């Protein structure tokens, strides 16, 4: 039996207008809020994003953290601001493209007295690329209280931005050829726009940049370069945006130093728990990530985001796909 042939896209009807898509993501004057976290409400429960950031310079796939942050922004727009997001559970279903806008469709699952629940579906070309369930909680007093302690690491003022640290390391002797090649390739892949809006400083640059042996563990300082104002909901969205930043690399980095180069690697799912809602992402924050298990072409990574004064404000978890080259 012959397979059915999918219908071809015909000539558009004269009464159907096809709007040309243009993104300001690469505009040198574009800021974090007016582009990468900017959403337009087009109808009830429908939001569209037109300014999308690449995850890698040479690949038109949208940065996963941007989709996470935009999902939270869209969902937060549908709840009263007395409700605080406390958990987000999501799946990356299909690679999104920066060449087309993303439509965010919100399902208002429940509006309760203490909790609100939203499900957000991100769509491109009529297909879901990402799905996310977000729970919001009315602020309540502490019943019990305890917290882990932030690791003691060098302060950001003592450290170089990631690119400067990498270039300085490449100028020194003693960097093996594999590490040098990986560093050069990584520098080429970092989107200019990301470095324009965020300052990232590895706490242990020699380990981060593969000069020294390392465990699947990473610590970086990060902050937004622009003043983001005093709306804590916005800072929560920016934090969600950042949580996908270094997780996969944390799992892969020790193996890359031994010569492993993945043929494919990307996030499969991503979870965020927001413990406190009063923090600023335009001030220094410490992101600690650790991979406790890898196998079966998947890696599991956990993260903790701290304020500079030592408060644990966000925890994260992610599973990523990591495939070996096929020879």
From TrEMBL:
GO molecular function terms noted in the UniProt entry: fatty acyl-CoA hydrolase activity
SUPFAM superfamilies to which the protein is assigned, alphabetical: Thioesterase/thiol ester dehydrase-isomerase
GO biological process, one term: fatty acid catabolic process
Occurrences of domain Acyl-CoA thioesterase-like N-terminal HotDog (ranges): 60-137
This protein's record includes keyword Hydrolase: yes
Acyl-CoA thioesterase-like C-terminal domain ranges (all copies): 189-322
Keywords, ordered alphabetically: Hydrolase, Lipid metabolism
CC terms in the record's Gene Ontology section: peroxisomal matrix
Membrane in keyword set: no
Family: Belongs to the C/M/P thioester hydrolase family.
Subunit structure: Homotetramer.
PANTHER family attached to this UniProt entry: ACYL-COA THIOESTERASE, ACYL-COA THIOESTERASE II
Name of the protein this chain belongs to: Acyl-CoA thioesterase II
Species the sequence originates in: Caenorhabditis angaria
Record lineage: Eukaryota, Metazoa, Ecdysozoa, Nematoda, Chromadorea
